[in-house]
Amino acid sequence: MQTPNNHDKEEPGSLFYNEEWQVVTEDLAGHYPQGLTESETQKRIEQFGFNEVTSKPTPKWLIFCDNLTTLLYIF
Fold it and tell me: Does some domain include residue 8?
């Protein structure tokens, strides 16, 4: 029995954490347990890029201000 998905109400992909894994796998056109084929993997890398999180370094002035506020809590 599949649970109904709420993707019609929200942005696509916004409620995957609330869904059963079978529904998410089907929605993303995944293949359990064998995974994606090499060609499908390459296609998705070209379409979406690598699964990476990019972050900007924290500015020095923000680190300095954070240290000042920490000192204020101590005194």
Answer: no
For 23, the token pair is 């529904």
Choose between 68 and 71: higher pLDDT: 68
Q: How far is CA 69 from CA 24, 40, 66, 73, in A?
A: 44, 50, 5, 7
Domain count, the chain: 1
Cβ atoms of 44 and 36 closer than 8 Å: yes
Express each pLDDT in 13-26 by its tens digit. 567 778 888 888 88
Residue 41 lies in a domain: yes
d(CA 11, CA 13): 6
Domain that holds residue 47: 16-74
pTM, two decimals, is 0.44
- The answer to whether the CB of 23 falls within 8 A of the CB of 3 is yes
